[in-house]
Description:
Elements: H1 4-18, H2 23-45, H3 51-76, H4 90-117, H5 120-127, H6 130-140, E1 145-146, H7 148-166, H8 173-199, H9 205-229, H10 238-266, H11 268-272, H12 278-290, H13 296-312, E2 318-319
Amino acid sequence: MPNAEPLAFSIWHSALTVTRLSRLDSLLLLMTIIWGTNYSIVKSSFRELDPQAFNAVRLAVASCVMALVSRAAARARLGGVFHTQASVTRRDWIALAWLGLVGHCLYQYLFISGLARTSVANSSLLVSSTPVVITLLSSIGGRERIGARHWIGTFVSLAGMYLVVGRDAHVSGASLKGDLMLAGAVVCWALYTIGARPLMVRHSPVGVTALSMILGTVLYLPLAAPGLAGVDWRAVGALTWAKVIYSAIFAICIAYTIWYAAVQRIGGARTSIYSNLIPIVAMATAYLWLHEPIGRLKILGASTVLVGVALTRTRETIGKP
Length: 321
């Protein structure tokens, strides 16, 4: 493909001219960096920790941190993203329990189980379908009115994702179960994203995330009990513990807060398109740390993804019903 680099530059220039980078965009890009690097961090920890045991510990740590942050924000009377004065009603508790079950218990169980059974390339490609699932569910449920430009941006971004990882992804008998689990995780995440937005009309993203995470962790621990019981905790090294803490604080606490602050501001469909950037971050990380080559086709694919993201970030794309 001799003209890939000039074409990639042209696509990159188009992406920059379609939309300006706002503070929210910058935070979402930070989120993709955190989640993109988290794949390697989590998977490498499985050498010393059972996948479900690793996840149970990081969820417990993240729940404690989010509860402390939420409590501190309430005492300091911080507003906006961190705290609101609205009381939690019985209906809110039911919704939070549902979010905890779907978005923290089932999602985490399926995601970690799938990641342990299949390749990072497959995982990245499956996760990149999240915007399409959220867009479809949002449109069908009447939660958001999806414009033509958003649909175009979504599928352009997915096409770019195929150029980045699609040729390296494969489905075999050994990984099929993991792939199916990750597909289920994508559906759970889409339901969680859509279901959280009505709550955030009255409550803060930190509050909704903290309460749903605590409830989800309580539901998750029995599923992880066999894995926890089988771990030789004395053999777990300091580096693995550092990975658990990093993944808990950054990949869950900080990244989840950014995600739902964006859902509150711009809706689930436009927020979810940033998940298409995660495999690009994983690719760049592999290049820098593992010296894996990046070909022209992957540069073109990455640029195409950026165009898709840019198209979904224009004001005309989605309007409230």
